[in-house]
Structure formats: C-alpha cells, structure tokens
Amino acid sequence: MPCRNLYLETGEIQAYAIRRVNPFIGVLQVIETEGGRAISSNGVVWEIELRTERSGMWGSLNKQTKEAVYYRFGLWSAEEGLVNRPLAPHLDKGPLTKQCNTLIECIEERLPLAVLASLKPGDKPPSPEAKYWKSCLGANGVASQYRFPGARNLEQLVERRASSNIRKYWVNRDEDGSGVLERNGECIKVYKFPGFLICENWPNEEDISLVNIYIAWIAPSLLSLQHLDKTERDRLERHLNVQAVSVEHHWHLYPEAVDERKLTAARLQCRLQKTRL
Fold first, then answer.
1. Cβ contacts of residue 59 below 8 Å, gap of 6+?
2. Is residue 4 within 8 Å of residue 184, measured between CB atoms?
3. DSSP readout, 25-37?
4. What is the pLDDT of residues 162-185, one digit of tens each?
5. What per-residue confidence (pLDDT) applies to 6?
6. 0.90 exceeded by the pTM?
C-alpha cells in the first residue's frame, strides 16, 4: 500500500507496506508514529515496538550518551488484545503504555467494523449519510428479514467499538474485492473488508458469538451477495433454517447454491411456517 501520512495530537503517523523479497514471502504492514511502530505480516497479529532511549552500555566510554532504540513491548490482536512482553527494570511503564495505546488506536482505525452504505460509481452519496450502524429496520423488522432478537446488544457492541469518534470513509471497490479510499487514494486489500458486512474479529468469545448468531440470522439475505466463495456460501446455507421464513424473499437472487438440498429444505420450512402465521 502507498505510504500514508496523518497528523494527530501525537504527531505524524505513517502507514506503509514493505515487500519481503528474495524470495518473496509477502508484505509487512507497518504503522509508525513518533513513539513507536506496529508491524504485522497478516494484518491480524501486530508486533508493538516502542521507541525509547537507551543509555550507553556499562563500562563503555560513552555511557552518558543516550540512544533512541525500538523496544519490543508486546503483541496485539483484536481477538486477544495486548499480550505484554516482560518489561526491563529500567523502563517506565506509564509513558510506554501511552505510546502503545496510541499505536493500537491507529491499528483499530484500519479495521473496518461494518458497511454503512453503498452506491454505484458516479452516484451522489445519500443525504443525510448514515450516522451509525443498524442491524435491522423498525421495531419488528420487515417481511424479508424480521428483527434480530439481539439487535440492541449487537448495535451497542458496534457503537462501543467505534467509539464516539466514529470514522466513516467512502471506498471505491474493484472487481477483485479490494478498494481505494476516496479521500487519499490508499489501497485496501480485500481481506480487510468484512465479508458478511460486519467485522468478525472481536475481543472476547461472547462478542464473537453474538456476531456469529447475527450472521446466521441474516444468512438468507447474505446469500444474495455476488462475490462469496463456495466456503462462505456453504457456511451461510447451513444456517438457512434459522430464519427460513425470509428465504422465499431472496432465493431467486442467489447466484448459485452449494447444496441445493439445504435450499429446498429451507424453502419447505418457510412455507410451513407461513401456514402457521
């Protein structure tokens, strides 16, 4: 990705990628601030290296000279949080923790939580733009998708993760699923976008479970997406029975079916449920 410069209260922030060549073994994603850097080879687990001063070694002629070096502070991921490395006795944990938190905030800025809106190239953005993410419409939902039972908890979860300083960006998507930020031309790899329109990487198992239950609930509508691979379609088809009553509204638009028997069973369940309504 191209180098990207930002300016916050903490100073300049750079985000870039380094190709690992000879032999080529992928790229390293780097987010760098004045106080340190975060490095990842997969975009999931990040090595936090903080910039601090190191005095001259014992017995050396220049032991009074201070040198700025990178100190390996810990590992961070959205699922596991921060795992600290043992701290050297001469280091002050307070300032380092602050530097670390700034880097984590920078990483989280680059993890899309949910898709808020979409439009065709050249169309005008909706007015007013969406201010927050919604899991369903209305108090009871709509005929094609009833209200998700855990809607309130899920929406609060997304709101907490996004925080009050929510950041929204328009992205121009390419045919391969990757995208380019409209505001600065930064490239975003396809794996960084939530395939089912909401992020599945969360700090604890309870949050992950809630998101998975929601994805299962809206599986009939998600299957109408055009660019799902067979693994993703198979996962969704296994949950068609969760809200089978909405299958009849969507199945004509499914690009393909991995297992026709699951679709047929869900449509039959849908008809049976409707006769009881």
1. none
2. yes
3. --EEEEEEETTEE
4. 765 567 888 888 888 888 888 778
5. 33
6. no
- For 82, other C-beta atoms within 10 Å of its C-beta total 15
Distance in angstroms (rounded) separating the CA atoms of residues 252 and 235: 19
Instruction: Give the phi and the psi of residue 82 in degrees, each rounded to 5.
Output: -95, 130
Measured in degrees and rounded to the nearest 5, phi and psi for residue 205 equal -65, -35
Among 241, 246, 235, residue whose Cα is nearest residue 266: 241
Residue in the block written with tokens 């067979």: 230
Could you tell me the sign of the dihedral formed by the alpha carbons of 105, 111, 114, 116, in that order? positive
In what helix (H) or strand (E) does residue 83 lie, and over which residues does it extend? strand 81-84
| Separation CA 223–CA 232 (nearest Å) | 9
146: exposed, middle or buried (C-beta count within 10 Å: 0-12, 13-18, 19+)? middle
Contact 50, 99 (CB under 8 A): yes
Spans in the chain with pLDDT lower than 50: 1-10, 57-58
